[in-house]
Amino acid sequence: MALVPCQVLRVAILLSYCSILCNYKAIEMPSHQTYGGSWKFLTFIDLVIQAVFFGICVLTDLSSLLTRGSGNQEQERQLKKLISLRDWMLAVLAFPVGVFVVAVFWIIYAYDREMIYPKLLDNFIPGWLNHGMHTTVLPFILIEMRTSHHAYPSRSSGLAAICTFSVGYILWVCWVHHVTGMWVYPFLEHIGSGARIVFFGSTTILMNFLYLLGEVLNSYIWDTQRKEKEKPKLE
């Protein structure tokens, strides 16, 4: 039996994301006042994705609790739709985008923080908030994968969806540059056009890889648990 019920964990994680988003939006940074505002940053988009995802998780838990034992087929049908939406969001957005943000941010930060998170930002964003945006996303999404089984969509439709998201964000970044003359991320200013194309192509490939990683990890976690439950029966 879990020390903390997964339903309670989801509520706690949702509240933490709401707190992070509120604190982040309350910060008066020059970049928030320019074209695109916070929405030009993948970190902010990811925070919104995670908050919406865990909001759907909490709503699913509440619906499941209210539907249990009612025998109402319409309510059960609506619950199945909610579960399908929850599973789709984890597979296509919450896991690959969340892991991408954490991995790419800290790799570039370790190489040269000025390329992704200039020291000047320390004057605006406290350390705990930086970790809330760029670190805790990973353990939170892994906790969710560990506590609940998620049915992945067909591989072709899942990859098509994450490709659409990736290309859409790349086009958005290019549009912001077209309008303002400035790249969203400082390191894009220091590389040539060819290198940018390679970088954008590589990020799309990485997103696809992370989708597949999530699919494999989800299957591994739940296949292992199923085998462990079957062992006593076989003995």
From TrEMBL:
Spans traversing the lipid bilayer: 42-67, 88-108, 128-145, 157-178, 198-221
Subcellular location: Endomembrane system
GO cellular component, one term: membrane
Pfam families linked: Far-17a_AIG1
Membrane-topology descriptor: Multi-pass membrane protein
Recorded catalytic activity of this chain's protein: 13-(9Z-hexadecenoyloxy)-octadecanoate + H2O = 13-hydroxy-octadecanoate + (9Z)-hexadecenoate + H(+); 13-octadecanoyloxy-octadecanoate + H2O = 13-hydroxy-octadecanoate + octadecanoate + H(+); 12-(9Z-octadecenoyloxy)-octadecanoate + H2O = 12-hydroxyoctadecanoate + (9Z)-octadecenoate + H(+); 9-(9Z-hexadecenoyloxy)-octadecanoate + H2O = (9Z)-hexadecenoate + 9-hydroxy-octadecanoate + H(+)
InterPro entries, per the entry: ADTRP_AIG1
Main location: membrane
Keyword Nucleus recorded: no
Keywords: Membrane, Transmembrane, Transmembrane helix
Domain of life of the organism encoding this protein: Eukaryota
Similarity comment text for this entry: Belongs to the AIG1 family.
Protein's recorded name: Androgen-induced gene 1 protein isoform X5
Organism of origin: Neomonachus schauinslandi (Hawaiian monk seal)
Lineage: Eukaryota, Metazoa, Chordata, Craniata, Vertebrata
Gene: AIG1
